[in-house]
Amino acid sequence: MPLPADVELLASLSMHVRDVAPQKRAPVSARSRTSAFTGSRIRLREYELVVVEIGPFMHSQGDIVTFRARSVGEPAAPAGAILDTRWGVCEVVA
Predict the structure, then answer these.
(1) CA angle, 63 as apex, 86 and 76 as ends, to 5°?
(2) In Å, what is the CA distance from 85 to each residue of 11, 13, 15, 88?
(3) What sign results for the dihedral spanned by CA atoms 83, 87, 93, 94?
(4) Which of 44, 28, 49 is nearest to 86 (CA)?
(5) CA 42 → CA 24, 63, 73, 94, distances in Å?
(6) Span 68-93, average pLDDT
(7) Residue 52 lies in a domain
(8) Which residue range is the domain that position 75 belongs to?
(9) Structure pTM?
(10) Is residue 7 part of a domain?
(11) How far is residue 2's CA from residue 41's CA, in Å, rounded to a whole number?
(12) What is the domain count for the chain?
């Protein structure tokens, strides 16, 4: 028996708090694992980063990034930079 139209419309909606501002995520087949976790401090070359979000995510240029991190200390990695680390591909955020 088919559902009423209003129930079908509601079935496609999600009321999860993170759905308010959806982010582009990579397709499941493109996902990779990382040993980094939120709050991890990573040293990469002359930069120190703090992991703020685990993905994967689609970067605005179409690249897939494994996680996002914020630069701390000096010198600071430029926001928007894509860094290849041993924990995966990282996007530097402000």
Answers:
(1) 60
(2) 40, 37, 35, 5
(3) negative
(4) 44
(5) 24, 21, 12, 16
(6) 91
(7) yes
(8) 23-93
(9) 0.60
(10) no
(11) 52
(12) 1
